[in-house]
Each structure stands twice: as structure tokens, then as C-alpha cells.
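User: quick one, sequence for these C-alpha cells?
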């Protein structure tokens, strides 16, 4: 792809520049799936404002990192312009949220914000691929369905149960894919970690289903994901490139969204 040409008018090449787009393919799925889940299952105007705010923060990551690290390039003006525009969009989203429902509905953000701060810390220190960084990053977005549900008027238990569904999908997935890729590179990997995370996730969701806080179909899907984890971390795993594994996980994510949306609307 040709390098974007720097311009004294930073907006000129804005839409053609990839400066705000995450390079990690998995980041798209693990960030957007929880937001889509919250909007599909608990739609509201306040939730739309909160989603716009979250997306602005998601896209601000790369330009923020570049400026924090003091990186210099011909696109520095474009980086500043992009970060400024995304910050403005984030502020507008927060103002809309305040006007529609007030900040009290978004109380689950009190847990998401520290996770986001932890990820920014790791990212600034060139450790965004560390396990703790990836888990913090996906946890940030997996918590957001609770805020979206709360903004739609759900009770605290049902809102957190929705976030639990996102966490049960994303956290074991991160550990599974990390382990699979390390095994494929003949590096040291702990197979027990993703399996344990998958078992815990399945147990938590099964208990929530028993309490009728989540649909029973979610338990079946978590069992499928646990089977996938066992397969990808076993001696019988397929030998696939990282991109293909990412596409496979994106497909599972879309299926997960479809199943949960159907199940919730049938309740």
C-alpha cells in the first residue's frame, strides 16, 4: 500500500489513511463483538451514544500510542489531527450520554476504565502482545455490554450477566489463540490455562442460566467453544496460518452473536 502523503491540510488524506486502524486482526473481533452484543440485545439511544464513545476510544489507540512514544514521521500532523478528531467524537458521545440518561446508567464503566488504562500502559511500553495486555484490552470491551444493558434500563444482575457472556467468550479465546500460535511455533505453551479458563467460563454461564439470568443456549455454545479450545491445543490440532485461525474465530463470534440475540429476543 502506498505511504500516505503528508499535507498541511491534515484532513485531506484522513479517510485514505490507516493511521487509526488497528493492525491486529483479532482486535476487531474482540472489541466489536461485545458492542454488537449489547446493541442487539439491549438497544437504546443512550447505548448508541456509549457505543460511539467506545469506538472513538478504540480507533484513538494507535495515534495516541504514536504521540505518547514521541514517534516522528511525515504523518505526525495527520496523527495529531486524527487523535484530536477522535477525542472530540469521544467527548460528544459522553455529552449525548449525559443528556439522554445521565452517567449513573453507565456505572459499569468504573470497572472498564482501569482495564483500559492497564492496556494503554502495556501498549506504551511496547508490550501490547503480552498476555496481560491482551486480556486487559478484551476485558475493557467485554465489560461494556453491562453498561449498554444498564443504559437500556436493565437491572444490575441481568446487566452483569450480559457482560459475563462477553467475558466468557473473549478471555478464553485470547488464551486459546495465544497457546495455539505458540504451539505452532514450537514455543513453550501452557495448554492447561485456556482449558481452565474455558471450564470456568462454562461453569459461570451454566450457573447464570440456572438462575435464569442468561439464555440456556449460551451454555451449549460455551461447551462448543471449550471443545474448540481442546482441539486447538491438542496434538490433533490443525496446522493453519494465523490469518485463517482469525477468520475462523470471527465466524464463531458472529455465530455467537446470532445465537445470543435470537435467544434473548425469544425470552
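Assistant:
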Amino acid at each position: 500500500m502506498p505511504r500516505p502523503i503528508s499535507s498541511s491540510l491534515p484532513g485531506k488524506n484522513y479517510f485514505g489513511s490507516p493511521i487509526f486502524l488497528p493492525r491486529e486482526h483479532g482486535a476487531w473481533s474482540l472489541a466489536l463483538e461485545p458492542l454488537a452484543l449489547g446493541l442487539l440485545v439491549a438497544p437504546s439511544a443512550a447505548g448508541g451514544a456509549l457505543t460511539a464513545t467506545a469506538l472513538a476510544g478504540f480507533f484513538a489507540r494507535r495515534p495516541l500510542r504514536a504521540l505518547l512514544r514521541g514517534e516522528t514521521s511525515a504523518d505526525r500532523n495527520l496523527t495529531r489531527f486524527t487523535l484530536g478528531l477522535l477525542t472530540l467524537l469521544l467527548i460528544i458521545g459522553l455529552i449525548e450520554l449525559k443528556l439522554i440518561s445521565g452517567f449513573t446508567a453507565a456505572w459499569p464503566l468504573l470497572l472498564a476504565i482501569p482495564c483500559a488504562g492497564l492496556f494503554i500502559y502495556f501498549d506504551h511500553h511496547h508490550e501490547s502482545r503480552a498476555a496481560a495486555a491482551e486480556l486487559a484490552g478484551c476485558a475493557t470491551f467485554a465489560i461494556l455490554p453491562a453498561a449498554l444493558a444498564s443504559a437500556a434500563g436493565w437491572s444490575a444482575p441481568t446487566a452483569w450477566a450480559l457482560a459475563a457472556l462477553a467475558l466468557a467468550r473473549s478471555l478464553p479465546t485470547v488464551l486459546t489463540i495465544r497457546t495455539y500460535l505458540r504451539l505452532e511455533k514450537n514455543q513453550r505453551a501452557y495448554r492447561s490455562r485456556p482449558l481452565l479458563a474455558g471450564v470456568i467460563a462454562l461453569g459461570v454461564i451454566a450457573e447464570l442460566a440456572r438462575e435464569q439470568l442468561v439464555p440456556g443456549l449460551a451454555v451449549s455454545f460455551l461447551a462448543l467453544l471449550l471443545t474448540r479450545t481442546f482441539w486447538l491445543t491438542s496434538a490433533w490440532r490443525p496446522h493453519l496460518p494465523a490469518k485463517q485461525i482469525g477468520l475462523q474465530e470471527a465466524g464463531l463470534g458472529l455465530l455467537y452473536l446470532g445465537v445470543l440475540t435470537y435467544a434473548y429476543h425469544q425470552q
